UniProtKB/TrEMBL annotation:
Protein name per Swiss-Prot or TrEMBL: HDOD domain-containing protein
SUPFAM superfamilies for the chain: GAF domain-like (SSF55781), HD-domain/PDEase-like (SSF109604)
HDOD domain: residues covered: 20-215
InterPro entries cross-referenced by the UniProt entry: GAF (IPR003018), GAF-like_dom_sf (IPR029016), HDOD (IPR013976), RNase_Y/CdgJ (IPR052340)
UniProt source species: Pseudomonas benzenivorans
Pfam families cross-referenced by the UniProt entry: GAF, HDOD
PROSITE patterns per UniProt: HDOD
Amino acid sequence: MDTRCHGLQSWIERLNEAELPALAAVVQDLHRLAQEETSSVKQLADVLLRDASLTSKVLRVGNSAYYNPSQESIRTISRAIVLIGFDNVRLIGMAVSLIDGLLTRAPREQLQALLARSFHAAVQARNIAGYVLSRHQEEVFIAALLFHLGELAFWGCGGEQADELARALDQAGVDEEAAVRAVLGTSFRQLTLGLVKAWNLGEIASLAHGASSRSDPAVYAVNLGTRISEAALEGWDSPAMEQLVRELAGFVGVSPEEAMQQVLDSADEAVRVASTFGAGKLCSLIPNTDPEQIRLQQEQRRARLLQPDLQVLQSALQALGQMAVRRGEVGAILDTLLEGLHRGVGLERVMLAVLADGQSCFRAKRVAGEGTAGWLSDFELPFEPSSQSHIFGYVLRDKEAVWMGVPASYGLNELVTQAIREKLGQGMFFIAPLLAGKREIGVLYADSRVSGRALSHEQFVAFQRFAQLAGRCLEALTRRD
């Protein structure tokens, strides 16, 4: 059973005494060597040689193509210091210690995501510092790597309280800062500053949490690298990234185009660095700079920003109204239906699943939205008219639209089977029968899971209206045939 901690001092004592003493000792000793003008090769080697596992990992990293492109064999710490430099070996020792101290436990996804962001920030910051500083670049790397030290330590060692915070942060509309304070009794920023002070990690790491003024170029490089690593998660062409690229261009004296290329090159380098340090599982969490991946990110952001378009909605309803009176093509009816729901109502993913194979199964017939193309070949659910074993069959038999994920529908949760969750994911969705008079055509499904936004009452009303109108259009066709 975890001993519950509350408040800054309580957490610092726990992390120092119970959870991270070995990591703290190595990090402190390596940092101390940077402060001493007369630090010797032997002193650095002695710190690393205390731990055989750490020694072997430092040598493995030192022999990597990233640090040792000449591939001259390095078998001892002292040889590594001669070949790749005192500062580089110290940096490798600190980074390897951090990874080992945190990732050797059962790593949470929050920890892995944050550590990936920290590596990305460290490489961005060091390369920015390279433009404006003749030395201290390695200290900038460490300061950026440890910028979220408190949060990293908490997700690595927080035990049951980390589980508690993870659950709290999963709630829609949660105030993250308030949730952190409620569980920890302090903020992540205060915890980081407390650990930086307790571990004596130096001025740059401490000052980086202050104002992002340009008065200290090293501190500013840490701050800018950290903000770039965060903005990259929104997409390389996001407004936040565009602003930071302009800032970087002004700071280092290059064009915005050159600054953007520098940022992308640093992101690629961060992937190589994470891999070099034996943290390959983090590589996929650093935003990809491949043009195809960037295009996919742009699509995701467009989907996240998808808003109801009243003009498209009204136009689609009007077109369906006319097709209910005058004969319309089936294809035109279905295209108008999905266009109205996706772009008009602002539903990110929409599917019409029709009864197929002699009404023995539901199969995707029409889809709209990002990531839905695969449904056309993959989505199939068995259907037995005599039973209501899942929500698709239930809705078709009950002949009523349902908004899943709100209290009124909780009693139907067991009808959202594992097979449905595997195919469509989890969360809120709308589902309604599509009926041509009394004839059962299939089921309409819609959600907004690309962005994770909650669905609204107005969207549900419009969704029901579209389902009813499309049914009238199809009924008019059957009457005339």
